[in-house]
Amino acid sequence: MDNHLALFDLIGALARHRFQTAEREFAAIGLNHTEARLLSLLNEAGGESAQDTLSNQLFIDRSNAGRALKRLEQEGYIVREKDAADRRAFLVRMTGKGSEAVRDIGRVRAAIVAGFFGDLSAAEAGQAADLLRKALPDA
User: Fold this and answer.
1) pTM of the predicted structure, to 2 decimals
2) CATH label, 3-115, candidates 1.10.10.10, 3.30.930.10, 3.40.50.300, 1.10.3720.10
3) What is the DSSP string of 43-81?
4) pLDDT of 25-78, one tens digit each?
């Protein structure tokens, strides 16, 4: 098999395994993978962001992001408010419960990463990351 095709298939298998592992591990703290990613992105944005910005950062359609945000809002992790500057848009703000969840998400994510790449040295992980970045457009 061509090495490029083998790499392509391996990346796909890793992505599926990553998603399945994340779904299982984040479920232990009451979240799914998308919800955990949304809270992490919101935290990186300083605790507040436009809903469309979050959707775009996830690379999922707005309806999927909207469903995840609705559940996070119902569970008290976030609040959504109409944007005063654009009444059609929503601003998303993290609550104290959301901030607490981000700490749990960080611990779960670290455990997932260790399970995936614990056998690689820091240098090997860096080399792999550098090589994969070459395949990304605009990287």
Assistant:
1) 0.85
2) 1.10.10.10
3) HHTTSEEEHHHHHHHHTS-HHHHHHHHHHHHHTTSEEEE
4) 999 999 999 999 999 999 999 999 999 899 889 888 888 888 999 999 999 999
